[in-house]
Amino acid sequence: MKSKSFAFSNLRDPRRTLAGIACAWLALSGGTVFAETAAAPATSVAPAVASPQGYTVTLKQLGRNYPMTLRGVDSTDSVSFNVRADSIVTGAKLNLQYSYSPALLAELSQINVLINDEVAASLPLPKDKAGQPQQQTIEIPAHLITEFNRLSLQFIGHYTMSCEDPQHTSLWAKINNSTNLSLDISPLALPNDLSILPLPFFDRRDALPLNLPFVFAASPDNTTLEAAGALSSWFGALASYRGARFSSTFNQIPASGNAVVLLSGPGELQLDGVSLPAAKGPSINIMTNPNDPNGKLLLITGRDSAEVKRAATALVLGSQALSGNSVVIDSLAVVQPRKPYDAPNWLPTDRKVKLGELLPEQQFNVSGYNPGDIVVPLNFPPDLFTWRDDGAPLDLKYRYTPQEKSNNSSFIISFNEALIQSQSLPSEEKLDSSVLSSLKANNGNLEREANVRLPLNSVALQSRLQLRYMFDYIKQGECRDIIIDNMRGSIDPESTLDLTGYDHFIAMPNLGVFKDAGFPFTRMADLSETAVVLPDHPGIAELNAFLTVLGRFGQSTGYPAVGVQVIEADKVAGAADKDLLVFASGNNQPLLSLWADRLPAYDANGQQKFHLSDLPMRVRDWFSPDPEANLRKTKLAMAFSGGARSTYLTGFESPLKSGRSVVVIAGGGPDGLADATNALIGGEDYNQSVQGSLVVVRDKAVEALVADEDYYVGNLGTIKYLQWLMSRHVLWVLVLTGLGVVVLSGLAYLALRARANKRLGD
């Protein structure tokens, strides 16, 4: 991992630091919040008075992709939700959408709504409304909501007044995942202190997508844009699954909220009529938004753009070390350079990875008869070469509590919903005496191992390993059935997944891996082998697209793009040994004319040219596990005049150096670039995904036109490369084999003839 060492001068008294962000939450219970400023002793900070604001999130947005199904006499399911550090909850409502079994007894059955294990409401289940969708709005007391929260839905069900089966099929309730939670909030002013970064610009408590504006004094130069790209990719990495979008303005501070400001100049700095202190070097400051007492500005300043970039690099790599409201970066030195494929978010391929590195240890422990899946996220590098591969070795160690008697208890290993292996969990009566004696030494737990292989052919880059315990429930008979919560299972965090045997090799161009992982640009997590080619005079649309796409790269790698290079078209020859990301809007990108013969889509002089294949005509919207079966090479070249300019994404091999890639994001106009970046981010509103080598975007419609793959990136061992090459050209192998037989036969004939002549001559 690449790290940097740096020193900084704190322009504020180091003793005056934030005591802790948690103190802000004293306001929730009526406490007084104290903060210190540079000019005065600690004083009370009251929440700012503002009109009530709020937002609504659904259970699906909180992670429930499917409805909650609650079964049995007592069943509970939960989701977590958090509240931003700069907000105070003044009210909350739960719009609950649910249904329940018609067999339930209304007098004994109910659904309880709990916030942090405190009952907020108890809903009766009347007979006349059973078996049909119901909706209830529940007022939740604000004092129950804290910084980190858990919303639980508990189902209590009974179907008879006499003895009942606690697992009877009539005991059920379903909670629709469109159930939504509405929070009314009031803003809370946070102190101007760098130690709370990335707050308030990004708050990990916030489940909503990040929307963050960038402010420039004027049209920024390339070095300033490189600093902005490092910052947007850092925020994109922090936002992670939430997603992030970035906007930009020139010399205009937002009317409300937070923003990142990049300024440079030798003297006093001016922005939107506000005077800022002159930079004394690469500086990082945090100050209150002059237009909003509850908003903050993150100022990245310097005497020139190089100092701005140095300050931005120090921030994204060492924000944890900063404190005070202003610092100057005195030095910044590279300690260790990055290596290919070492992105923090990707599984390493140079060593075995422990499952404990991918999930917190407590999430490997479960309880109950049917506790649900332990889901381990697996983010694979996009170019793993899996040809003729048996799968990645998974060495799994797990423990469980044996039941006295059972017939069907099992441990199930699944990969992306596909069953890999099911292992029985023997009960005590099926264990021999030596194993039973070892149970006492292991606190009643039985340790076992499973060695399986995960098939990686055409696997999704963001995959899931699902581990599930299912304990057999043995019925004891009428009036004797009772559920005892003594079933436990655990996965050893020392279990390993091994990808060390895989090479990196992939056919290109492939817009699918570009969309999902930013590949091939993210091969180096810091984008040190990437050059971004912007138009000569980029406008707001180009800057927004640039910042948002780099934020997407950061989301993929988990690392800021501190090595990216920004250039114009006339400097592209100096970046021949880099992968090129080209932005265009209308006809403002000269490279589109220069490389017109390589582009499958081209727009010039009022005429639009496209290469087409039969990819849009496929009967079914599915893709084969065999990548070659998905190819749809160009079969038609078409040009036409008139009509609106098209927005498209395309990829091809760099004309400057073989093995290097070019991806072009071209908008028919400024709005087209926004459509293209939205298509890369994706979502439920888009009818297709980005794939192939040419994609046309029309508003929210995404159409793949061509799937050419005509060059390769990566390396294979000599023997494996020859084997792979021969498998792709069987006819040539047969011809060469025939020629080889003829040549060898001729040589053998000549050798034997020479030997015979020699013997006869003697």
UniProtKB/TrEMBL annotation:
UniProt keyword annotations, A-Z: c-di-GMP, Cell inner membrane, Cell membrane, Cellulose biosynthesis, Membrane, Signal, Transmembrane, Transmembrane helix
Compartment(s) where it occurs, according to its Swiss-Prot or TrEMBL record: Cell inner membrane
What are its GO cellular component terms? plasma membrane
Tell me the Pfam families matching this sequence. BcsB (PF03170)
Where, by residue number, does the polypeptide cross the bilayer? 730-752
Q: GO biological process: any one?
A: cellulose biosynthetic process
The UniProt entry lists the main location of this chain as membrane
Looking at the keywords, is Nucleotide-binding present?
no
Q: How does it sit in the membrane?
A: Single-pass membrane protein
Q: Looking at the keywords, is Cell membrane present? A: yes
Q: In which pathway does it act?
A: Glycan metabolism; bacterial cellulose biosynthesis
Signal peptide (from-to): 1-35
| Top-level taxon of the source organism | Bacteria
> What NCBIfam families does this protein map onto?
PRK11114.1-1, PRK11114.2-4
Q: How does it assemble?
A: Tightly associated with the cellulose synthase catalytic subunit.
Summarize the protein's role.
Binds the cellulose synthase activator, bis-(3'-5') cyclic diguanylic acid (c-di-GMP).
Q: Which family does it belong to?
A: Belongs to the AcsB/BcsB family.
Put simply, this protein is called Cyclic di-GMP-binding protein
Q: What is the originating organism of this protein?
A: Pseudomonas helleri
